[in-house]
Design a protein that fits this description.
Length: 168
């Protein structure tokens, strides 16, 4: 446990699914549960910085919410790492448009909305392949049903729209 919270390992199945969706590694992103840092951000349940996701509650709750994972990983992978998201840019967007309509939140919600079904399908196939009590099933997993085809090449600079999803 550190002053800011406890660093948690990303579950292997979740990491593989996220890497498939983003088309690049995600294991460099630190996940910090029960973070004091996020509590400095008012009612926020999650906040991000370059290479870090800070959680108010447990990592288990975060890993159980595919939409929120996609939303927050997009902030880190698609925005902080590309340097389009900075504290200064984020605050300017919030002053100009408010939290809900700032371009960083709109983009992250759109990404999560567009990919949540695919992430859920990948995670459920992985869980089915392991089976109860962690025993590997010998039957092959279902193929490309529910939009689970080849990896998506995500372009962090591509314009995104939409306002669906949930607030983080």
């Amino acid at each position: 446990m550190t002053l800011v919270g406890r660093v948690v390992q990303l579950p292997e199945a979740v990491g593989q699914a996220l890497e498939h969706l983003f088309g690049r590694r995600v294991d460099h992103v630190r996940i910090i549960e029960h973070s004091l840092f996020v509590r400095l951000h008012g009612r926020a349940v999650v906040t991000t910085r370059r290479r870090c996701i800070y959680l108010r509650s447990s990592a288990a709750d975060f890993f159980d919410n595919p939409w929120l994972m996609l939303h927050e990983y997009w902030h880190v992978i698609g925005q902080w790492e590309s340097r389009t998201l900075t504290v200064r840019n984020y605050l300017a967007e919030c002053v100009r448009r408010g939290y809900w309509n700032n371009r960083f939140e709109v983009e992250a919600r759109a990404f999560a909305d567009a990919h949540v079904h695919q992430l859920r399908a990948m995670l459920s196939r992985q869980a089915a392949a392991v089976g109860p009590a962690g025993v590997l099933n010998s039957a092959p997993a279902a193929s490309t049903a529910a939009g689970t085809g080849p990896a998506l090449a995500v372009n962090p600079t591509a314009p995104r729209g939409g306002t669906g999803g949930q607030r983080s």
